[in-house]
Specification:
single chain; 6 helices; L-fuculose-1-phosphate Aldolase; eight-stranded mixed sheet; globular; alpha+beta; 14% strand
């Protein structure tokens, strides 16, 4: 458990270092033997320790480590739970980590309720030819989780309307790589729209070729 707690802390620190989360915004989780570990609610990364991470069960209950200064899990624990929970319709057994950010450009696009279309072949890293934007729902609510799961069908990332981004991975390292790439794509698309509001897009056939090429392409290999 300590190893996973340390990984979760390091990932949170890296997100802050990269400017993808600021203050107490955002959260992340990783599947554990009996449920999942999630970052605490309302705590800045600077104040977190491995003991601050909250062990949750898939029924929504949780326990704090005795030496922890955390009070409760992230308010967004529901979509972490619903993404990682096994033996459900939405189960993604290949996904073991979830990252949520309020990063600048992903959030900008999310506030415009914009899907990100295939303007660049790297869109394929999310598993499809678009990055969908989930419909708006109140933060921390079950409705937000339901909307996110819909947008994440066959995808490793989505935007949350008027909110931010969710990225998924095989592990925390993979989820972080997806997070960084999605933020980069959102920035590129934002900059392109300043020049051309209707940029040329890759076709379905061209994106199929990309997916085939990705099967042997480094860390993105399928």
């Amino acid at each position: 458990m300590n190893g996973l707690s340390e990984q979760l802390l390091k990932t949170s620190q890296k997100l802050a270092e990269l400017g993808l989360n600021k203050g107490t915004s955002g959260n992340c989780s990783v599947r554990s033997q009996d449920g999942f570990l999630v970052t605490p609610s309302g705590m800045s990364v600077e104040d977190m320790t491995p003991a601050s991470m909250v062990q949750m069960r898939f029924d929504g209950s949780f326990e704090l480590q005795v030496e922890s200064n955390a009070k409760k899990p992230s308010s967004e624990w529901r979509f972490h739970r619903d993404i990682l929970r096994p033996n459900t319709f939405s189960s993604r057994p290949e996904i073991n980590a979830v990252i949520h950010t309020h990063s600048m450009f992903a959030t900008t696009q999310a506030c415009l309720h914009k899907d990100i279309p295939p303007f660049h072949y790297m869109i394929a890293v999310v598993g499809g030819d678009t990055i969908r934007c989930a419909s708006y729902a109140l933060f921390g609510s079950q409705a937000l989780s339901d909307n996110a799961l819909s947008a994440l069908q066959d995808r490793k990332a989505c935007l949350l309307a008027n909110h931010g981004m969710i990225a998924l991975g095989r592990d925390l390292e993979d989820a972080l790589a997806v997070t960084v790439e999605v933020e980069n794509l959102c920035e590129q698309y934002w900059r392109i729209l300043q020049v051309n509001p209707n940029p040329p897009l890759l076709s379905e056939a061209e994106m199929r070729e990309v997916f085939l090429q990705f099967k042997g392409y480094g860390k993105w290999a399928k």
